[in-house]
Design a protein that fits this description.
About 60% of the residues lie in helices and about 10% in strands. The chain is of the alpha+beta class. α4 runs antiparallel to α5, α14 runs antiparallel to α19 and α15 runs antiparallel to α16. The longest helix has about 35 residues.
Length: about 575
């Protein structure tokens, strides 16, 4: 464990905390057990504990469950681990419900930074004392979190603002912890099947990317400005103004937003706010961000949204955002079409294209799971469907089939579930599907538009060209290998899945035939390129063509199965 030598003290602290919270089996899996002495009873029953994590069952220890132990350990390990737990609390596609529910309790709070340290950061970053920069500056913090601390202030023109100051030393600790987490995730993926199945290393890499972005207040300011541009013509949506002359990567000055909390029904009713309208409008805001602007706020919990007396909605805290690229938008349209049509084969294809698999996927089992899922909701329109329950069922299927979502899709579902939860607090009869349905129908129409079809054909052509270019080189290396000590070929159906999945994207049997033709042409170019055509080369050529024929038959079979509508 050479990389541990740089951060030995922190590794030892992590191992000690895990054992203290009866998570000693993780110490062994992560390869850091030698850093702390073994104490009987503080990490035993490894197999039982591992099974508890895998299945979400509650293995009891000192009256606490495994999810509680994990939450307490993350809290004790500090800001980076708390934020990792908060991220995992939104990943129902990765963790069982008991863990998701427990990790949602994590709070990103921290003891206040001494005001002298805050003033020192402002002086260093902005070049003057707070009293010279602002008409007023309140030394008492509005809030204190793991990354930064917020103070109220007033500009010279009387504008009330919030000054966010990054905690001294926060970056160094976060970067150290991120490096450690990436090392541990890579090691866990090598040692433990469940970590490999969920691509723990990939999840931590995405988390590191998100958290590094949150450390940069300049990026948060740019995010706020983009939202302000996107809603410039929406009079009932307020985005705080950024004051760049008082902003750096460590200090962010924003217009202060005030208003009522979404959960304060008494205050909302006293002000005469139409809660049903605000619930519907809140959903429309998030759906516009997602499907029209393709840039959305990914952390709209109750503390980041205020409601004014006139029903205007103000948003704050733009550190965590998501973006919908063209490819992801295409996957979303296919997903919605499959849901509307109730087609399990199409839905399975959309999910496997969208998801990241830690191991090979049994597509037949996935289609059967989705057939049952669709049958459960087939008598309801999207507007009648309880969105959170449907997504929970879908995530259970993803977990069972060892699929997980890419970061942007996970953030999207998090944003939709958060806004549904907020809207239900305003209006218990709210249905997100009613607001979502028009966007789903629009995506479905766009999928069949001429431009969308042209884009898919272009991508298919690119795949075809890439395969054709790669094939001669691969076959030449096969010939070179056979010239040496020879080789053996072992084929299993599961090993063909990645190639089949890639080739299926190209389309139909006609294109599969074109691929075969390109490969045969490549072989012809090799064997006529000046070398003698020996007997073993003819045998290899026949074997290669036989494999291609088998693959073509498999593709034809799966294509026919996909075209067959479910009964």
């Amino acid at each position: 464990m050479a990389e541990a030598t740089t951060h030995t003290a922190r590794y030892r602290e992590i191992a000690t905390v895990l054992r203290r919270h009866s998570l000693g089996f993780m110490v062994g899996l992560l390869g850091i057990g030698r850093l702390v002495p073994f104490r009987r009873g503080n990490g035993g029953r490894n197999g039982a504990r591992t099974r508890a994590i895998d299945t979400g069952t509650a293995a009891q220890s000192n009256g606490e469950t495994s999810p509680e132990h994990l939450r307490l350990a993350l809290e004790e390990l500090g800001p980076t681990f708390i934020k990792l737990g908060q991220l995992l609390s939104t990943r129902s596609d990765l963790l069982p419900p008991a863990y998701v529910e427990e990790l949602a309790k994590l709070q990103d709070a921290a003891p206040p930074v001494p005001v002298a340290d805050i003033r020192a950061v402002i002086r260093r970053e902005l070049g003057s004392e707070p009293e010279e920069l602002f008409a007023t500056f309140d030394d008492r913090p509005l809030a204190s979190a793991s990354i930064g601390q917020a103070h109220a202030a007033t500009l010279d023109d009387g504008t009330p603002v919030v000054v966010k100051v990054r905690r001294p030393g926060a970056v160094a600790r976060v970067l150290e912890d991120l490096e450690i987490l990436q090392n541990l995730a890579a090691r866990a993926s090598r040692r433990w099947g469940p970590a490999r199945d969920i691509d723990a290393a990939g999840v931590v890499d995405e988390f590191a990317q998100t958290l590094r972005a949150e450390l940069d207040y300049l990026q948060e300011g740019r995010n706020a400005e983009r939202f302000a541009e996107d809603f410039a013509h929406e009079a009932d949506v307020v985005i705080p103004r950024v004051f760049w002359e008082h902003t750096t990567s460590r200090v962010l000055t924003l217009e202060r937003m005030r208003g009522m909390n979404v959960g304060d029904a008494v205050a909302l009713d006293a002000a005469g706010v139409d809660r049903k309208r605000v619930a519907r409008r809140g959903a429309e805001i998030v759906l516009k961000m997602t499907f029209e602007d393709r840039f959305f706020h990914a952390d709209l919990h109750p503390g980041n949204l205020f409601i004014h007396d006139d029903g205007t909605i103000a948003l704050i805290d733009f550190g965590m955002v998501g973006a919908i690229g063209e490819e992801l938008r295409g996957h979303l349209s296919t997903l919605f079409v499959a849901l509307v049509r109730g087609n399990p084969a199409m839905l399975a294809g959309a999910l496997t294209s969208l998801s990241v698999a830690g191991s090979s996927v049994d597509r037949e089992l996935l289609r059967e799971d989705l057939r049952v899922f669709l049958a459960k909701y087939r008598l309801r329109s999207l507007r009648e469907t309880p969105f959170a329950r449907m997504i929970a069922d879908l995530f259970a299927i993803l977990r069972a089939n060892r699929l997980h979502l890419p970061r942007e899709m996970a953030l999207l579902f998090k944003a939709l579930l958060l806004i549904e939860g907020l809207a239900l607090r305003l209006d218990p009869e709210f249905r997100l599907g009613e607001s979502l349905e028009p966007y789903a129908e629009r995506l479905a129409r766009e999928r069949m538009s001429a431009s969308a079809i042209a884009r898919r054909m272009a991508r298919a052509s690119a795949d075809l060209g890439e395969l054709a270019l790669e094939a001669p080189g691969v076959l030449r290396r096969l010939f070179d290998a056979a010239d040496g000590s020879g080789f053996e070929v072992h084929l299993r159906a599961a090993e063909l899945e990645p190639l089949v999945a890639r080739t299926e994207r190209i389309g139909n049997r006609l294109v599969a035939g074109m691929i075969s033709a390109a490969l045969i042409s490549g072989v012809g170019g090799i064997v006529t390129s000046g070398r003698r055509f020996r007997k073993w080369e003819g045998t290899l050529l026949g074997t290669g063509l036989g494999v291609l024929g088998t693959l073509g038959g498999y593709l034809a079979y799966t294509s026919a199965r996909r075209r067959r509508r479910p009964r």
